[in-house]
Inverse folding.
C-alpha cells in the first residue's frame, strides 16, 4: 500500500511559489586549489568541483538566510499572507543552535504565529520533497490553508573551509544557499503525487568524524566533517543512481505519464555524473533536467528549490507543464519524489 498517495476526496494543495537566497559573492575553485592535497580520492567523480559556489559568513545564521529567501514571496503575495502562515516547516543542514531548531525564530522574524511548527532533519538532500509531503498532509486534513517550507544549506563556509578540511577532495563541492516554498490549499499549481521511501539499512553508512576519538561537541583537536572511504563512495554512488529514478518513475506511473514525457526534471545535485545518469534513466534530454551545480555547487536540500526558483525567474517553467522533483538523502537512507502541475508565481 502506498501511504503517500492522497485520497481523491482530499482537497488539492499547490506549490504556489518558490524563492531562494544565495549568500555573499561567488567563491572560485582557486580558493581550494591552494590548499589541495595530492590524494587518490580527489580523482573520484563524486568530488569533481563546480566552477563556483557561495559561502555563508561566519555570523550569518540559518534564520538570516530564511528571512532573506522569503523576501520575494512577501513582495509577490503580501506581508499579510506571510504573517498568517498556518504551517511552518524548516530543515537546516547545520543548526545554529544545537539545542533547538530554527522554526520558532523564523516565525518571530517573519511576524508569524503558525499553528504547526516543525524542524525536520532526516530528509537530508530530499528534505524539500519530504516537507512538501508533510505540509500537504496537514493542509489536506486540517483547517490550515497555507504552509511555508524552508531548506537551509549552510555547511560549505563553516565546515568545508576549516584549515584541516579545505584541502580534502570533497571540500570544493558544497555551496551554501536557502530555498523556500509556499504551499496553499487550492488548485493553482497542484501537487499531483508524492512518493517517500525510507531505507533504514543504509542509515549507518554516513559518518561525521573529527578525525580522532573526540566527540564533535567536546573540546580538543580535530575538525568535524563528513568522512568518506572509497568503498562507501562506491556503495553510495550505486544507490544514488538507482534510488532517484526509482521514486521518480513511481510517481510518473501513478500520474499516468512516462519519464520521457516529463517537461522539467529537478533533482538534488551532488555532482555532474549523478545528474547525467538520472536524466538518462528517465530518457530525458539534458535541457529538461536543469541544475545550478556549476554556479552553486552541491546545495544539498536547497538544490531543488534554488534550481526551481532560477528556472521560474528565467521563464523556463511553463504554466500547466509537469515538473518532477526527485532526490536521495545521505548515504541512501531516504528518497522522495513529487510531481507538480506548474503554476507558481514569478
Amino acid at each position: 500500500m502506498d501511504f503517500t498517495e492522497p485520497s481523491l476526496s482530499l482537497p488539492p494543495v499547490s506549490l504556489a511559489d518558490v524563492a531562494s537566497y544565495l549568500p555573499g559573492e561567488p567563491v572560485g575553485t582557486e580558493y581550494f586549489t591552494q590548499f589541495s592535497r595530492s590524494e587518490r580520492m580527489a580523482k573520484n567523480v563524486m568530488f569533481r568541483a563546480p566552477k563556483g559556489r557561495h559561502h555563508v559568513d561566519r555570523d550569518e545564521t540559518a534564520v538570516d538566510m530564511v528571512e532573506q529567501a522569503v523576501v520575494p514571496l512577501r513582495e509577490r503575495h503580501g506581508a499579510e499572507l506571510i504573517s498568517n502562515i498556518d504551517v511552518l516547516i524548516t530543515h537546516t543542514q547545520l543548526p545554529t543552535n544545537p539545542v533547538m531548531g530554527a522554526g520558532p525564530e523564523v516565525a518571530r522574524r517573519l511576524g508569524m504565529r503558525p499553528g504547526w511548527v516543525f524542524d525536520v532533519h532526516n530528509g537530508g538532500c530530499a528534505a524539500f520533497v519530504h516537507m512538501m509531503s508533510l505540509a500537504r498532509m496537514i493542509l489536506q486534513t486540517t483547517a490550515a490553508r497555507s504552509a511555508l517550507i524552508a531548506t537551509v544549506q549552510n555547511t560549505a563556509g563553516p565546515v568545508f573551509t576549516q584549515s584541516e578540511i579545505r584541502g580534502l577532495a570533497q571540500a570544493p563541492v558544497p555551496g551554501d544557499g536557502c530555498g523556500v516554498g509556499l504551499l496553499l490549499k487550492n488548485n493553482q499549481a497542484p501537487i499531483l503525487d508524492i512518493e517517500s521511501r525510507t531505507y533504514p539499512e543504509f542509515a549507518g553508512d554516513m559518518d561525521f568524524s573529527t578525525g580522532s576519538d573526540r566527540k564533535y561537541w567536546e573540546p580538543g583537536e580535530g575538525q568535524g566533517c563528513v568522512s568518506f572511504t572509497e568503498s562507501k563512495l562506491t556503495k553510495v554512488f550505486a544507490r544514488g543512481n538507482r534510488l532517484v529514478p526509482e521514486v521518480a518513475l513511481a510517481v510518473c506511473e501513478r500520474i499516468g505519464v512516462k519519464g520521457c514525457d516529463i517537461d522539467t526534471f529537478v533533482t538534488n545535485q551532488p555532482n555532474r555524473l549523478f545528474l547525467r545518469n538520472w536524466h538518462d534513466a528517465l530518457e530525458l534530454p539534458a535541457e529538461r533536467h536543469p541544475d545550478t551545480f556549476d554556479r552553486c555547487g552541491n546545495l544539498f536540500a536547497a538544490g531543488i528549490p534554488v534550481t526551481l526558483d532560477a528556472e521560474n525567474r528565467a521563464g523556463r517553467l511553463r504554466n500547466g507543464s509537469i515538473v518532477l522533483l526527485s532526490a536521495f538523502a545521505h548515504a541512501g537512507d531516504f528518497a522522495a519524489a513529487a510531481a507538480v502541475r506548474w503554476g507558481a508565481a514569478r
Summary: The longest strand covers residues 14-21.
